[in-house]
Amino acid sequence: MVPSDHSQSRRKVLAGIAGLGAAGLAGCTGGSDEEAQTETATPTATPTETEESPYDVDGDLTVDGDFTGEVASASGVVTVASGVEFDGAIDSGEGVAVEEDAVVTGRVQTFGDATFAAGSTVGGTVEAQNVTVGDEAHVEGGITANGKLTVGKAARVDGTASSSKNLVAKTDAVFNDFVGAGLEAQIGEGVTVAQTLSADSATVASGATLEGGALITEQLTSKADVVFGSNVTGNGGVELGSGNEVQGDVSSKGAVVIGANSLVTGDVSGETVELGSDVTVEGEVSESGSQ
User: Fold this and answer.
1) What pTM value is reported for the model?
2) Alpha-carbon distance values, 154 to 118, 136, 189, 198 (Å)
3) How far apart are alpha carbons 10 and 32 in whole angstroms?
4) Is residue 199 scored above 70 in pLDDT?
5) Is the Cα dihedral 123, 125, 128, 133 positive or negative?
6) pLDDT mean over 206-215
7) H or E stretch including 5?
8) Which residue of 81, 165, 259, 282 has the fewest C-beta atoms within 10 A of its own C-beta?
9) Looking at residue 14, what is its pLDDT?
10) CA 16 to CA 277: how far, in whole Å?
């Protein structure tokens, strides 16, 4: 992954020399003219092409108050020191560490892991292997984690947050766009997701709000007092805790269990459907297993 706007700085260079030629042998003594012609006809090296590194620094780089430039580019780990406000972007070969209360106004891209400490801010998008967003940190762009994504307590992500593997959202984290996980999504207490949550499987803790509902490939399990602002689908099964509210349908190819005192404004369908005491379903209830 070489950042597109920086890759234009690559330059190809010749690593070899085509040959010395007759002029390079001028002034040599000894040997016949025939020997000289033979030597002249044989190149001393074969031209080859190689690429320069796309990074400005070979090794690690620390961005502190003395750093100048619009892009912090290094083949190793790029670190933005605590409290520093860096008006630029980061390209890194091995990883990125943005320390406590530091600010990066541009995008962050790395082949390695990216860590954003408590209170830090990133103004652009983030793309990395594993991404950790610390407590009360803020990412104004989206996040693409090719591994695991962890978002800390009361942290905020304004763009789409996606992980190829597991996603963990801790207490009171806020997501202002879609959230997706290739494997399991663990949504903590009081977490807010403004758009749809999609994952292979998901657990949602008490008091969370999923305004765009949930689209889950396998099992969806929620605890008490969770609000789903749209449809809920868990193809492998759905188990909603007590006091849940679903502003839409609940559907599954497996079993559906809805806890006591919950409200569903749409239909409920599953292979089997079990409703707790004082559950209100404003639409129809259907069981595919009974057909």
Assistant:
1) 0.81
2) 10, 5, 11, 21
3) 47
4) yes
5) positive
6) 98
7) helix 4-7
8) 282
9) 27
10) 82
Tokens for 162, please give them: 């996606």
The residues pairing with 157 across neighbouring beta strands, listed in sequence order, are 139, 175
Phi and psi (nearest 5°) for 238? -130, 130
Side-chain-side CA neighbours of 161 within 13 Å: the count stands at 33
Using DSSP, state whether 136 is helix, strand or coil. Answer: coil
Say if strands 49-51 and 12-14 run parallel, antiparallel, or are unpaired. antiparallel
Sign of the torsion formed by the C-alpha atoms of 30, 31, 33 and 39: negative
List the structure tokens of 123. 């103004």
Q: Based on DSSP, count helices (H) and strands (E) in the chain, helices before strands.
A: 2, 40
Q: Which position has the token pair 């379903």? A: 281
Summarised one tens digit per residue, pLDDT across range 256-284 is 999 999 999 999 999 999 999 999 999 99
Buried b / exposed e along 95-121 (16+ C-beta atoms within 10 A): bbbbbebbbbebbbbbbbbbbbbbbbb
